[in-house]
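---------- Forwarded message ----------

FYI, see the Transporter substrate-binding domain-containing protein record below. Original note from H. follows.
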Amino acid sequence: MLKRILAAGVGVWMGAVNMPGARAADSALDTVVDRGVLRCGVVLDSPPSGYRNARNEPDGFDVAYCRDMAQVMGVRADIIETPASNRIPALVARRIDVLIASTTGTPQRGLTIAFSRPYMSYATIIITRRGSGISSFADLADKRLGGVAGTTNEALLKKEMAGSWAGRGATYTAYGGDNEAFMALEEGKVDAILQAVGVFKTLQDSGMFPDFVNSGSVPLNDLVSIGVRRDDVQFLNWVNQFIWSQNASGRFAQLYRTYFGNGPLPDLSTDTVAP
């Protein structure tokens, strides 16, 4: 019954925003419905959030989230592979309609695009090779570090290197995507990278990097949001309503356990964010 009520509620919202006189100028919401296709920008080298399955098809939590959104809108989902470093430019250039790509809504990014309420949260850990001697975040102060360009993990490391780690010898190398960062760690080009614990679990399950180990937690609980164009208030309101529906209906819990396994659901409240 709850699912039918929620579906009806989103449907009423859709009907209201499509009434004559209610259409905001140039809203992606109207464009998508008229076109019949929702173009979602998704990072596909970061399992289990986004990846290509054995049939080389887009899959993962973010992919499923996009398909759910398209289904509610009554349109087809088009998954546009979008590298992490190109997420915001792709949205600004209108190559995509919506960004569902595990993107943290920082104030700096908010100057360029608009962010929804959080739809997912990732605990962050340190990944090293076995025998590195690293066991805490403080141990990174004099190490060779790597990460994906333009991410909050990168921002955290650079902040520490310019602050409490200044002069300790730490270096940082940016890579274009998670796969490049994983290979750099595997080949010994860097000593450690930061990554979501769910991604690390997927790496463990795959057996691709048997020497990678979890070497401790990081003071970063990454709440991620859906991105839309900065001036598209109508679409942003609808996206927030959709996220609420996913949570209240139990669909979020279903998707989480499908892609991240059993266990407690992540807390999507802002109270969990480290200062």
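H. also flagged this: The CA atoms of residues 122 and 222 lie 5 Å apart.
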